[in-house]
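Whiteboard transcription, Tuesday session. T.W. wrote the structure tokens on the left side:
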């Protein structure tokens, strides 16, 4: 269980005022998934997590249930919980939902964003760029996800924010599982450009930039080759067909 401990790398005593133990466990596991320290299909052993965080298995179960509702953890009857590992078809559906959601959020953000929110987002982008500059890809990816969640906050629509949080974390799983090539940061100018368009109230420009941004993310994912599957029968399907 040492690798799991290193992946979580936390202490329950780090909680801030107002957070319950459930919140702390949830947030740390969520961040570990978003930073890809807990990759798809990782088993989330309740006993090990309880030992790591110093809490009861009841609290661990509640946190895992919350994560399962956001579709980043799968709870399997009598087999325990694992980090979700979307299939290619599921990945395509997730990304399509993300595209629809992001455009709706961008449109609302142009009309509802406050100067304080935009200023906060610019600070977040600066942190993101710094993380990528020092090759801290996990932190950069998490901060990139936080940027998109902040956009949903600008939209001032609670249901969209809830859906966006889930889709952002699911997209992180897709990147961990299906990204091809090197870990390059294509969001350096794209996030700043989006903020500029939102701040200026240029809705069409903001929508165009968001579409381009999502296209860049999608272009780095190999969702068109069945051999990306973890299923050995799929990987070696050609051999099986030849034998039949």
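and on the right, the sequence the group agreed on:
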């Amino acid at each position: 269980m040492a690798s799991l401990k290193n992946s979580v790398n936390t202490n329950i005593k780090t909680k801030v005022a107002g957070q319950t133990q459930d919140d702390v466990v949830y947030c740390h596991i969520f961040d570990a998934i978003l930073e890809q320290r807990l990759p798809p299909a990782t088993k989330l052993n309740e006993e090990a997590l309880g030992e790591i965080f110093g809490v009861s298995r009841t609290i661990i179960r509640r946190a895992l249930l919350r994560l399962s509702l956001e579709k980043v953890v799968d709870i399997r009857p009598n087999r325990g919980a694992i980090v979700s590992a979307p299939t290619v078809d599921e990945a395509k559906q997730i990304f399509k939902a993300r595209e629809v959601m992001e455009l709706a959020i961008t449109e609302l953000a142009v009309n509802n964003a406050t100067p304080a929110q935009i200023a906060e987002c610019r600070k977040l982008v600066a942190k993101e760029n710094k993380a990528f500059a020092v090759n801290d890809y996990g932190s950069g990816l998490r901060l990139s996800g936080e940027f998109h969640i902040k956009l949903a906050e600008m939209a001032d629509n609670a249901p969209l924010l809830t859906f966006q949080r889930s889709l952002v974390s699911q997209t992180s799983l897709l990147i961990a599982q299906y990204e091809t090539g090197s870990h390059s940061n294509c969001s350096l100018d794209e996030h700043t450009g989006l903020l500029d368009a939102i701040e200026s109230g240029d809705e069409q420009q903001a929508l165009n930039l968001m579409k381009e941004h999502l296209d860049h993310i999608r272009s780095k994912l190999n969702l068109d080759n069945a051999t990306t599957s973890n299923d050995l029968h799929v990987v070696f399907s050609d051999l099986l067909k030849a034998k039949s």
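Someone added at the bottom: The mean pLDDT is 84.
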